[in-house]
UniProtKB/TrEMBL annotation:
<feature type="binding site">
    <location>
        <position position="122"/>
    </location>
    <ligand>
        <name>Fe cation 1</name>
    </ligand>
</feature>
<feature type="binding site">
    <location>
        <position position="151"/>
    </location>
    <ligand>
        <name>substrate</name>
    </ligand>
</feature>
<keyword id="KW-0963">Cytoplasm</keyword>
<feature type="region of interest" description="Disordered">
    <location>
        <begin position="1"/>
        <end position="29"/>
    </location>
</feature>
<protein>
    <recommendedName>
        <fullName>Inositol oxygenase</fullName>
        <ecNumber>1.13.99.1</ecNumber>
    </recommendedName>
</protein>
<feature type="binding site">
    <location>
        <position position="148"/>
    </location>
    <ligand>
        <name>Fe cation 1</name>
    </ligand>
</feature>
<feature type="compositionally biased region" description="Basic and acidic residues">
    <location>
        <begin position="1"/>
        <end position="11"/>
    </location>
</feature>
<feature type="binding site">
    <location>
        <position position="244"/>
    </location>
    <ligand>
        <name>Fe cation 1</name>
    </ligand>
</feature>
<feature type="binding site">
    <location>
        <begin position="109"/>
        <end position="111"/>
    </location>
    <ligand>
        <name>substrate</name>
    </ligand>
</feature>
<feature type="binding site">
    <location>
        <position position="52"/>
    </location>
    <ligand>
        <name>substrate</name>
    </ligand>
</feature>
<comment type="similarity">
    <text>Belongs to the myo-inositol oxygenase family.</text>
</comment>
<feature type="binding site">
    <location>
        <position position="147"/>
    </location>
    <ligand>
        <name>Fe cation 1</name>
    </ligand>
</feature>
<keyword id="KW-0560">Oxidoreductase</keyword>
<keyword id="KW-0060">Ascorbate biosynthesis</keyword>
<dbReference type="Pfam" id="PF05153">
    <property type="entry name" value="MIOX"/>
</dbReference>
<dbReference type="GO" id="GO:0019853">
    <property type="term" value="P:L-ascorbic acid biosynthetic process"/>
</dbReference>
<keyword id="KW-0408">Iron</keyword>
Amino acid sequence: MTILIDRHSDQNDAGDEIVEKNQGNGKEEETELVLDAGFEAPHTNSFGRTFRDYDAESERRRGVEEFYRVNHIGQTVDFVRKMREEYEKLNRTEMSIWECCELLNEFIDESDPDLDEPQIEHLLQTAEAIRKDYPDEDWLHLTGLIHDLGKVLLHSSFGELPQWAVVGDTFPVGCAFDESIVHHKYFKENPDYDNPSYNSKYGIYTEGCGLDNVLMSWGHDDYMYLVAKETTLPSAGLFIIRYHSFYALHKSEAYKHLMNNEDRENMKWLKVFNKYDLYSKSKVRVNVEEVKPYYLSLINKYFPSKLKW
């Protein structure tokens, strides 16, 4: 399959190169896939305001800012290492992907200024929007459905972690906090901020070391990656799951010096995914029972009946 990256889209700046790749089955085909597709981003979110506007005055904005204050203080190298060590054991429970989707009905993301609906709504909105524009990329539909399932960390069965340790934009720890990160000013209270081992451009990393070797702030992205990494989901899908909240990279191009060639290749798919993740949020409900059989078929294709969480 020839993947054409359209530079005319203001949401996609990955370049105008042509890439020969088929993520679904690894076989080259003669068809063309334009990464810009036909999706048109709305101008306002479900509250009638600009998307990801963290400065618009509202009660929700104040709550979001307080969320990031606590998040930026608490996400340290020591904290991230502790969380990874605890949750990579995957010894909490065994359940199916759809069972996890249903668990998320109980939660609303406090870091999101654009939506106050239960998470299952956002997952289906994202997946269905992708499915409409990329009908043949079933792995991408499934990635849309499952990308936020790591938010089950909020559930009592998974430790009932505070929201600041589960949701929100992610960023590397162990090196300088880039100024493009939302509410950057609160990092000044982070114990790592003045640590000379952690506050330089590279910190504990080296140029081109690859994002796999970078400690990201702990949350649902990294957790869901740990759950899904041994399945047959393509590498681009795993990359999307792990870095879809890394806005400093895929919106502001910070931390590019840490990427390797595989990261740059997968970034093209993340840029496709991002606009559906962000701009498909709305008050329009998806008929769950109508679309459920389709997504169950994808789950059966790429995942075992039960996963360790």
